[in-house]
Amino acid sequence: MFKIHNQYFFKSSTSYWLLIVLAVLCYMWGGFFSPHIYAEEPIVAGTSAIHSAVKDLTGKDTELAVVVPPDLCPGHFDLKPGDIEKFINAKLIILHTWQKDLPAIKSLIRGTKPSNDKIIYIQVEGNWLVPKNYINGLEKIGTVLIKAGLLSEEDYKKQMDKRKKEISIFEQQILNNIKCFQPENIPVITSIFQTDFTNWLGFKTVATFPRAEEITLSLWGDLIKKGKNAGVKIIIENLQSGEIELVKRLSTELNAYSVVLSGFPYTCPTCNSWESSVQNNINILLKVIDNKS
Description:
Blueprint: E1 2-4, E2 8-10, H1 13-30, E3 43-45, H2 48-58, E4 64-66, H3 81-89, E5 92-96, H4 103-112, E6 119-122, H5 131-147, H6 153-179, E7 187-191, H7 195-201, E8 204-209, H8 217-230, E9 234-238, H9 244-254, E10 257-261, H10 274-292
Parallel strand pairs: 3-4, 3-5, 5-6, 7-8, 7-9, 9-10
Antiparallel strand pairs: 1-2
């Protein structure tokens, strides 16, 4: 079920289809008399992670449009008329493979009918705020941009070499700074969407939990048992998943701190780059560790 500005609830893809038909008609009528909200023929990014990678490789930001806001669950986001305009104007649409079957995305594609060479799906495993995963994403998106004629091979190599060096230096600084806190001795329970991130930093993952609707009584009991046995003091939630209330209850049961980390960049006022987005997650963790100490 999808909620739009607390006013309407869409119960099926048919509702999405009706919204798109209306939006396209409004666009066709109003487009002759008013300027576009978005840059002409933008590159549409399925999430802020793809947006960040395209921006890093091309140096362009104003010509980018994002489908899913970074702080929302990609499977439960508001579908707005502006999203249709993004698809209609796009010179290239880059989505994650897991977005292909989302009702809102399927309806957008069905309604706007982009050509096969305009819409590209990329597969990158794991949390994009982990350096190796982000570099993998940069490489795959670079290939897409070159094939679409939106980035030269020379510029790609130059930007890729630059970003790899910057990310490597940044990663070493992060790992060196966090090493003094001995994360391997800090047991945590984490959302499955943050396991990559906490493992990269070296924390001791005692257990993981899925989305709230997938947690059974048996799993809940197992989380409490493992948490108490390991002396877990930090429960890590994923911002885009929406299990915040559940995590609060679990942290109360275990007398532990609860924190919320993002799985995507650009979710805070100072998160204006991939690095600052990663740093924000780490700052949240370190604040709790300092309190715990």
